[in-house]
Amino acid sequence: MLNKLFSYFSEDIAIDLGTANSRVYVRGRGIIFQEPSVVAVNQKTGQILAIGADAKKMVGRTPTHVTAIRPLINGVISDFEVTEQMLRYFLEKAQKKKFILGPRPRVIIGIPCGVTEVEKKAAYDAAKNAGARQAFLIEEPMAAAIGARLPIEEAGGNFIVDIGGGTTEIAVISLGGTVIAKSLRIAGDKLNEDIINHSQEEYKLLIGERTAEEIKIAIGSAFPLKEKKEMPLRGRNLVTGLPEEILVSDEDIRKALEKSVRQIVSAVKLMIEETPPELLSDIMKRGIHLAGGGALLRRLDTLITKEIKIPTEIIDDPMTAVVRGAGLVLENLDELEKVLVGTEYLEPPQ
Ligand SMILES: Nc1ncnc2c1ncn2[C@@H]1O[C@H](COP(=O)(O)OP(=O)(O)OP(=O)(O)O)[C@@H](O)[C@H]1O
Ligand SMILES: [Mg+2]
Prior knowledge:
The protein is α+β, with helices and mostly antiparallel strands.
């Protein structure tokens, strides 16, 4: 009875705790904010100076005793205490005053597929310690598929690829469950790294992570573009030590990204090869669905369609699919409880 009352009043929250960005959905209100998953910490005192967008601005620009930490690596918690603080900040920000006055929220957190029990427990504990009344976990590809409104409950194959910052997750979903899934540690962050390495090797130019990401978003592609794109790349010449600006083209950047892009496409191909034939025929009809920020790399959908010969499309608003899906589960917890990750420490919905 008390639980029912709690559930009625509590502002339940779904969180996509991403390697690059976190998004927060409140039951009945929708997505209320998204922030980079970055925390600035004063190493001398251990004090947290900023979280989210404010902390991201500090990346690469901090004095030596201040570090901007990304507490998640490849989608899993690498710094438990900082993650917990970040979650607490998100929960408080999501609930305003009610955090103190109302019942504590139930929280659903998206986790990569194929993580270990220890990693799942870390996400669960972080949510509980940050103030959740109950915590539930959902695998990100499942959440993305629900967010994309794919018919996951039907007896038919749905193929989803979520390319985030830290991981690319590929899953085949049918009858409300994951049939096969794989998580690959090659995604947006790796592409940034590729651009950094390429500039050093090809142009002897040292560039930062932010510059690499800007270039990738501005002119990056997986397949030749119809119109040529160029952009100045600013960095430090490794030989002279002086600042330098060079002009790079979409072709240069495509070359830098080629190896990692190939690895992503190969992983998709392998998963198609492993898909049971019955489900494959559905997938050939329904196509391959791309989610996550990495799906926005120009013409990646074209490359996958060409290589795998299955129509591939980017879902609407690919970066928020996971949190929207987790939010839909929150809105229909009784009905969709079965899609949550079952582990011994999960609690039944109330
Ligand atoms: N237009 C774009 N073109 C290419 N990459 C992009 C574009 N926009 C965003 N990205 C990349 O998408 C990644 C972030 O995607 P997303 O927010 O889905 O990741 P995440 O959920 O935080 O990470 P993960 O799911 O791996 O934990 C970043 O690497 C970013 O550079
Ligand atoms: Mg993600």
